[in-house]
Amino acid sequence: MGSTTWFFIAEQLSKGVVVTLQVTLFSALLALVLAFVIALCGLSSSRSLRIFARVYTEFFRGTSALVQLFYLFFILPLVGISLSPMTTAIIGLGLNFSSFGAEIVRAALVNISKGQRDAIAALDFPPDVAFRRIILPQALTFMLPPMGNLLVELLKSTSLVSMITLSDLTFSGTTLITTLGHQTLIWSIVLVCYFILSWPITGLVKRAERRFTRHRRPQE
Amino acid sequence: MFDYAFALSILPELLAGLWVTLQVMVAGFFCALIIGVGVAVLLESPVRVLRIISQSYITFFRQTPLLVQLYFLFFALPQTGLQLPAMSTGMIGLGLYYGAYIAESFRAAIGDVPRGQWEAARALDLSPSVTWWRIILPQALKPMLPILGNYLIGMFKETPLLAVITIPELFQTARQIAGLTYRFNEPYTLMALLFLAISLPTSLLFSVLGKKKRHD
C-alpha cells in the first residue's frame, strides 16, 4: 500500500473518531443527568416515584442497547417523530446508560454512613443544604470509579450506532473495507483506535480508585 | 396500529430466533467461564511471560467493543485459513470478550481467599493442581456466583450483535421480518418484549439469591 492509501485510511478513521467522541460525550452528559434524576426518584418518599424509578431501570437494563436504538430509529418515525441518526444515538445510549448510572448514584447515596445522617438531623440542616454540602461530596468519591468504568462501557457501546447509519469509527472501518479490502488490517487498526481512546479513562479510574481508598483500608 | 394477528403470525419465527440466541449464549458462557478461570489462574503463575500475556489479554478485550471484535473474528480469521461456522465464531467471540471480564472478577475472588489457605496447602505439601482445584477455586467460586449471573444477563443482552456475523438469532430474525414485510412495529416490539421476558425473571432470581445470601 502506498502512502496515499495510508493517508486515506487515517483521514477516514479520524473522521470516525470525531463522531465516536461526540456521541460518547453527549450521551454521557445525558446519562449523567438522568442517572441523578432517577436515583433521587428511587430514594424519594413518594411511592409512585419509587415505582417509576424501578420500572425505568429494570426496563432499560433488561433490554439490549441495540434493540433500544433500533426501536427509536424505526418505530418513532411511524408515530411521526423523526430524529436524525445522531440525536437517536445520543438519546438511545443516554437512556440506556442512565439506568446503569442511576444504580451507581443510588448505591453511593445510600452508602453515606448513618452517623452522618444523624449529625445532619441533630444539627437541623435544611434537606437541600445537607444534600449539597454533606451527602453529595462524600457520595461523589464513591461514584467516580464505577462511573469511569461505565464511561468505558459507553465508549465501546457507541460502536452500535454504526448500525443506525451513523458514520462513527466502526462505520468508517466498514466503509474502508468496502473500498480497500484488507479486512484483517483495517479491523486491527479500528480495535487499536478504540483501545487508545479508552486507555486514558481506565488509567484515570485506577488512579482515582487508589486515591479514594487509601484512607479507607480495612481497620480491623 | 399494532396488528395483533400479524404479531401472532410472526411469533413462532421469533421464538425460533430466541432459541438460537439462548443456545449461543449458553455455549458462549461456558466458553467464557473456562477462559476466565484459566486466565485468572495464569495471572498467578510464577512465569512472568504468562502473567504479562494474560494481563494484556484482559486489558485489550475489555477496552475494545465486542462488535468490532466480532467483525475481526468473522472476517479476518478466514483469511488466516481458519474457516469456522458462524455459530462457533459467535461462541468464541462472546467467550473471549466475557472471559476477560470473568478473569478480572476471578482474580479479585482468588485474592480474597485467606492467605492461610495457601499456607496450609503448602504445609500439607499439596501439589499446585490440587491446591487450585480442591482448595482455592471452590472458595473463590462461591462469592463469584452472583457476579457470574450478572455477566450471563449481560451476555444475553449483547447477543443482538451476533446478527452482524449472520447468526439467525432473535434480533436478526426480527430485522429480517421487518425488512421483508416493511412492518417495523410488530417485530421490534415483540423482540423487545421477548428480551424482557427472559432478562427480567433472571435478574429477579439473582437479586433474590443475592439477598438470601446476605441474610445468612
Question: Overview of this structure, please?
Answer:
The complex is a heterodimer of chains A (220) and B (216). With 220 residues, chain A is mainly α. Chain A has a domain at 22-166: MetI-like fold, CATH 1.10.3720.10. Chain A has 8 helices and no strands. Chain B has one domain: Orthogonal Bundle (MetI-like fold). In chain B, helix 1 runs antiparallel to helix 2. Chains A and B meet through helix 2, helix 3, helix 6, helix 7 and helix 8 of A and helix 2, helix 3, helix 7 and helix 8 of B.
Number of domains of chain B: 1
Count of helical stretches of chain A:
8
User: What is the level 1 CATH name of chain B?
Assistant: Mainly Alpha
| Nearest-integer average pLDDT of chain B | 89
The CATH top-level class label of the domain at 22-166 in chain A: Mainly Alpha
Largest sheet of chain B: none
- Helix content class of chain A: over 70%
Which structural category do the helix and sheet elements of chain A fall into?
Answer: mainly alpha
Give the N-to-C terminal Cα separation of chain B.
Answer: 51 Å
- The CATH homologous superfamily of the domain at 22-166 in chain A is named MetI-like
Give start-end ranges of low-pLDDT stretches of chain B: none
In terms of topology, how is this protein built?
The complex is a heterodimer of chains A (220) and B (216).
Chain A: H1 3-43, H2 47-62, H3 65-75, H4 85-110, H5 114-122, H6 127-157, H7 169-180, H8 183-213
Helix pairs in contact in A: 1-2, 1-4, 1-7, 2-4, 3-4, 4-6, 6-8, 7-8
Chain B: H1 4-43, H2 48-62, H3 66-76, H4 86-112, H5 115-123, H6 128-158, H7 170-181, H8 185-215
Helix pairs in contact in B: 1-2, 1-4, 1-6, 1-7, 1-8, 2-4, 3-4, 4-6, 6-8, 7-8
